[in-house]
Fold this protein.
Amino acid sequence: MDALYAIPQLMFYLLAGLVAISSLMVVTSRNPVTSAIFLVLDLFFVAALYAKLDAHFTAAIQVLVYAGAIVVLFVFVIMLLNLKPDALRGIRFSVGEAVVLLVTLIGFVIIGAELASPVPEGLPAGPLSVAAIEEAGGNTHVLAMRMFTSFLWPFEIASILILLAIVACVMVARKEKPESGKHNLKAGAGR
Amino acid sequence: MSVPVENYFLLSSFMFLCGLLGVMFRRNLIMVLMSIELMLNAVNIIFVAASRQLGQVDGQVMVLFVITVAACEAAVGLAMVIALFRRYGTVNTDFLRLLRG
């Protein structure tokens, strides 16, 4: 019976190790395509972690949006730019970079020690435990109820943000040929 | 028997550290953008784990918004990378020093 109880924990440590390794590989591999592939792996493992935390809808969105859209965008741009792997730079840090690295590492040791300390028991547990969510109609239903009532305005603002991002992308990434653009416009108007 | 929430926090902090170091030390703009995605994901893990620990779904709603913002950021960032590459022929941050267009 003990072994059965240990399986979820083993799953967590397996997934956590895979997430950690693939995060490291994303940052350290020299070829951008390799990095992108490891990013996909990383995002899938994170989605598995979400599923393990009973956040099923979030896990699905993670796979669809991150792995399905964002990383594909990355790979597409890498292909478009035809990037070569980075040249080996050696371990040469300027003084400023070394100081920044040192301060960051110290800060993360402190934060990590703080995060690793047990969460106090007296924290008030909200009404939506896993069992309560199942009772109320499942994760997606509860999430939608929350999102379209309490978070309605942020939701609308997010839609405006997406619209802005679309316009900005088209404006920034189009080819800069104002003369030919005007010409085409005139030609179109003349016809 | 579930995993204590502190383990998720530790994993997330490690992932964030990876992303931060990537942003600081990689010279390729696309790698910098990927590292930012890593950092956003690290924060999302904390949101979901804490949301379950505290018996709320607000954290999961926040994750949806973070994913939205991350998608927008990636799209705009990559568009800027393409524009920079057209203009200067490189995406190496050592050569891109001017803020002026």
The two ends of chain A are 80 Å apart (CA to CA). The longest helix of chain A spans residues 2-28. DSSP finds eight helices and no strands in chain A.
